[in-house]
Design goal:
Layout lengths: L4 H11 L3 E5 L3 H14 L3 E6 H7 L1 H14 L4 E8 L2 H9 L4 E4 L6 H17 L3 E6 L3 E4 L2 E3 L9 H11 L3 E4 L4 E2 L10 H10 L4 E3 L7 H9 L2 E6 L1 H17 L6 H23 L3
Parallel strand pairs: 1-2, 1-11, 2-3, 3-4, 4-5, 5-8, 6-9, 8-10, 10-11
Antiparallel strand pairs: 6-7
């Protein structure tokens, strides 16, 4: 069933667990996420970045996810990840998406609020959830790139003011994670997370979770994280599946066998993450 992230995350917040938000770019990835969610009987968030939409096409990817969600017995939200252009946010809203992220974290505090409020106003009129970001996460994810040393951890007091003035449904925070593959072991600022959680009532979002240890992720959930974004781990799993197909037969040309193997690998990773985030 197709629902908003507000419905999914409020339930997660009330019950003390996190929901996986899995990035996709094609049909096989969508199938892997939905199959894993149904197998685990868990709600999931399927999300796509602006770059993924340029690759797959907004109408095409929207249709695939919406069709899969409407046929599924588990709650599924369709979410725009790191929407930086208002035109893209608006296009997703008009195309039936149930959730959008406006990422104006590259701007100063007041301009971030101004841009976020504009999206909240139009989204809430259409019963669509809004995620925003305060602070900057180092690394590269599609068109978003923040150089090391330019990251900015989220200030708890600013987070409280930001949520109150914008009316966002969830807030992505910077506490030490990074986009892309980690060069070393990430160190999460759990004390900062505690302070933010004490100041903010909406569900909190952790970006750049691929490569973070299971123990750290579960600790973050216990301290108030309710949405965890996974992208890099999925790309690696999909690529591993393709390599496995060619290892079995270097001359393989049946795209169904190649992508089918990749889909299976991604299904396994998504299933593992869902169980991890549920704290079972």
């Amino acid at each position: 069933m197709l629902v908003t992230t507000r419905e999914i995350l409020n339930q997660a917040q009330n019950s003390g667990y996190a929901v996986g938000a899995f990035n996709v770019s094609n049909m096989e990835q969508v199938q892997a996420v939905v199959a894993a969610a149904e197998n685990e009987k868990a709600a999931v968030i399927i999300q796509a970045s602006e770059s993924a939409l340029k690759y797959a096409g907004l109408e095409m990817l929207s249709s695939i996810v919406i069709c899969a969600a409407q046929k599924s017995p588990v709650p599924i939200a369709l979410h725009l990840d790191h929407g930086t252009a208002f035109e893209m946010v608006e296009a997703c809203i008009k195309s039936g998406w149930t959730s959008v992220m406006i990422d104006a974290s590259a701007y100063d505090f007041e301009l971030n609020i101004e841009k976020t409020k504009k999206v909240v106003e139009i989204a809430h009129r259409n019963n669509i959830s809004v995620e925003a970001e305060l602070g900057r996460i180092v690394g590269t994810e599609d068109q978003i790139s923040v150089k090391e040393g330019s990251e900015l951890f989220t200030d708890p007091d600013e987070a409280a003011e930001f949520v109150e003035r914008t009316g966002v449904d969830s807030l992505a925070i910077a506490i030490g994670t990074a986009h892309g593959k980690y060069k070393g072991e990430p160190k999460l600022d759990f004390e900062r997370l505690k302070l933010i959680k004490n100041c903010v009532e909406v569900p909190l979002v952790l970006h750049g979770a691929s490569g973070v240890s299971s123990s750290d992720l579960q600790q973050a959930i216990k301290l108030g994280i309710n949405k965890i974004n996974i992208d890099t781990d999925l790309r690696q799993a999909f690529a591993d599946g393709c390599r496995e197909a060619f290892a079995k037969n270097q001359q393989e040309y049946d795209i169904r066998k190649i992508c089918g193997c990749a889909r299976k690998k991604m299904f396994e990773v998504v299933s593992e993450k869902i169980r991890l985030f549920s704290l079972k």
